[in-house]
Specification:
There is one protein chain. With 198 residues, this protein is mainly alpha-helical. It folds into three domains: 50 residues, no CATH class; 41 residues, no CATH class; 90 residues, no CATH class. The protein has six helices and three strands, in the order H-H-H-H-H-E-E-H-E. The chain has a three-stranded mixed β-sheet, with helices on one face. Helix 6 links the parallel strand 2 and strand 3. Helix 1 packs across helix 2. The longest helix has 26 residues. It is rod-shaped.
Length: 198
């Protein structure tokens, strides 16, 4: 959406004036000040209309985050007591577009979005005839077919910094509780998941 400036609106209003001496600058100089004031107000409204369009999309929402949270029953309990504004924006986006799943790709995407780009999933195998080998160090149990491990790997430096945080925020890395909470909430009920951090 193209946002028009006050100069654009002034030129448009000037062009829309009817002909005649009542609208001439020489005879009536106050018309320019009235048109300038109207142009500034129209440009301000045009800018706010563009902002409203941006607020209607979850990718660009800023001012209406509390309203989106109210509708979507956020903030998420997994994000802690006082999540940052960026985390709240991300939660709004994810709640709106996320469809969920039980695949490896879904859980890897959860880990990636929380700052673990090197995450991988190890699925444990249960002993089955034809797949298991005698003499192996770890043969496993029948319940191993429902077990999997998320190897989180090192976390990106997403911690708070001086000058880019607000009063009361914790410096350094964020706690890992959000990853555990999100993964355990999304995991199937019959699964047993483990998380190893790098």
């Amino acid at each position: 959406m193209a946002v028009r400036t006050a100069d654009d609106y002034y030129a448009q209003l000037r062009a829309l004036l009817p002909p005649g001496p009542a609208w001439d600058r020489e005879f009536n100089p106050e018309v320019d000040s009235v048109l300038g004031s109207l142009a500034q107000e129209l440009a301000r409204e045009d800018l706010r209309a563009a902002d409203l369009l941006a607020e209607s999309l979850p990718d660009t929402v800023r001012e209406l985050v509390p309203d989106w949270e109210r509708v979507m029953e956020l903030p998420d309990a997994c994000m802690g007591e006082s999540p940052t504004f960026d985390d709240r924006q991300l939660a709004v986006r994810r709640r709106l577009v996320e469809v969920g799943g039980q695949s490896r790709a879904y859980f890897l995407d959860l880990a990636f979005s929380l700052g673990y780009p090197q995450a991988r999933i190890v699925e444990h195998r249960s002993p089955r005839f034809g797949r298991s080998r005698f003499g192996g160090g770890h043969f496993g149990t029948w319940s191993a077919q429902y077990m999997w491990t998320l190897e989180a790997g090192p976390r990106l430096r997403l911690g708070r910094r001086f000058g880019a945080s607000y009063w009361g925020q914790r410096f350094g890395a964020d706690p890992n509780g959000a990853l555990e909470c999100v993964v355990r909430r999304a995991a199937p009920a019959h699964a047993v998941e483990f998380i190893n951090y790098g």
